[in-house]
Amino acid sequence: MRRLGPGAHAAAALAAGLVLLVGGLVPSAAAQTPDKSDVVLVLDFSASILQDATNRNRFGAALERIADRVDAISIDLVAGDTTVSIVQFATRAADVPGCADLKLLNNPATVARFADCLRSVAGAYRKGLSSALTKKIGVDTNYVAAMEAAARHLPVDAVRPALILFTDGKHDVKGVPVSQVQPARDRLFGSRPSFALLPVGMGLDPAERGALATGLERLELIRNMPACVSGTVFEWPQVVFQSADEAGNAVAVALQDATCTFTAAPTPTPPPAPTPAAVTGVSLTPGDGLIVVDWSKPSVVTPSPGASAVPIVDYLVQCRAGNGEPIGSKEGVSLTTEATVDGLVNGTAYVCEVAAVGPSGPGAFTPAGAPATPVGRPPAPGKPAVEALNSAIRISSPPGTDSTVTYHYECTDDGGATWPATADTRADIATAQIADLTNGVDYRCRAYAQNAIGVSDPSTLSDSVRPCNSVLQCNAPLVPILGGLAALLLAGVVVALFALIRGRSPGYVVAVLDVVHTANIGHGSRLGIAIVRQPETRRITGIVADKGRNADIRIRRLRGGRFAVSDRTGRKVVNDGDAVVVADSVGVRHSLALRAFAGSAASRVARSR
What we know:
The protein is of the alpha+beta class. The protein is built from 13 helices and 30 strands. Strands 1, 2, 3, 4, 5, 6 and 7 form a seven-stranded mixed sheet that branches. The radius of gyration is 49 Å and the shape is elongated.
């Protein structure tokens, strides 16, 4: 497949028109007094034409054939009093170097130069949009610049001044709105006693031909153009043409009337080259920023009964939004009856069409039965609202309007590690129920939207919800109240037990450090010792009881005659009377033995120490 833009049709029309312009005319006998004419041929070099290789080659071939014909009828051109200039334009306009103000009367060398100019311009079309040409004249289409350049070669006192404007029919330069085209024409040519501005628009889609005709008809200007010696009356009844043959014949007649050089009627138009029959069954499948186009091969391969078969060498596929430029597929040459047109705007309707291509060009386009609208992934739904039920959750998101979109809900009870609870519903309904959940467990949920294209990003997580089937489960505010009452009751029990325990004889614990230092460190379950050192030498002089958090060694009495001993290295459990290695607050290691005694025995031991 390849893209078919407006310039391709324009190129075909221009090729046929320019061949008829010179090669399709037969010169008459020389008039007694040649008519004086000034003609400017203005050629569109904008990107809309030069970016298409087929378009460029057609323009180039047409101009080369004209050059050949100029050489062939040089004697007749020398007899005509015509001054010819060639201007190329896009964003800006410029004379083709060495091809301005060529006076053909009695000057065979200038006629030969005119032919060389046509070949030079043909070569420029064949090369396409070069960086040098882009720098020189830009890439857009500017009718104002084209007319201003032409006006420099049409003297104010010219008897028969004519401007023939070849274009793909669209003024689109930035900074120069189309509203300035008409005032520019009137400023440049409106006050001239005689003048002809002949726009030739070709190649736009039939649906746009009416708008193009209206614009070019307003641009056309014919005022007091004198008749040629032959008596030919100048007129230009049509500015937009449906086929290359009609446009070419009209251009030939226009040049004849403008220059008075050729006074014979154009030769009959040759029959058009056969093209393949139209394809059938065009169908469209929209995607994300694209449309897939399918079709069936033509049911017949001949253009008319009895004609030779026309082989299909390619297909042209294009889509257009409203009055915009057509966008073609990018598959390249292919005989596959499916193509993708991408680079489209989601949410915009496109009309698509397909044409079979034969060796001589494309056949008629077949449009699809209805437009197609590309669509992308749906946006993420809004934050779901959740409601607790018995072993279930009712969940909903803000509803959508597209019934082809579905919402997928999923919930987690493990912080998002898994999402086992799910439900699906249409977006326009948006409410679903997720069952088989565990009462009393907290869940959080999220939503996705899904269509034929794909799945959206996840929604914001819902608030936490807890299915329930009892008063406590379903009335969460009661839980802290009842918990507080239970805590008060438990606290009373603890206080009573503590008073009971304190009333009992708790006994005492004796600590022996490094077999040398001994201290009665008291009673209770939480104990500790501090190591006493001389300030100057840091030598240990003894140990004392210390229950504070900054004690060197912290001790906790356990059941079964055991002690939990904590130092800077960690926690150890040791039996009553056994030694354990501990590290003090400065990292010195010691041997520590703990022994618990009843009250009197402990007192005796302490006294004996």
